[in-house]
Amino acid sequence: MRPRIVRNALEVALLVGAVLNLVNQGGRILDGSPVSWLQVIMNFCVPYCVST
Predict the structure, then answer these.
(1) For a tag on the chain, would you pick the N or C end, based on fewer CB atoms within 10 A?
(2) Whole-prediction pTM value?
């Protein structure tokens, strides 16, 4: 892959993944409850895969 594509995909994944985590697990984060780490990882991996 080209470095520019990877860099852009990482930027998109960080932004979209953070928003998805807040939407999907915001209540748990604010309550201090345990979060699903698999879901956290997937919230970042899926946007990366889609944007490449």
Answers:
(1) N
(2) 0.86
Specify the amino acid at residue 33: S
- Cβ neighbours around 13 below 10 Å, total: 21
Helices assigned H by DSSP within 1-52:
3-31, 37-51
For the record, the structure tokens of 41 come out as 């990882």
Give the number of residues written for the chain: 52
Residues 6+ apart with CB under 8 A from 27: 33
Q: What are 1-50's pLDDT values in tens digits?
A: 799 999 999 999 999 999 999 999 999 999 999 999 999 999 999 999 99
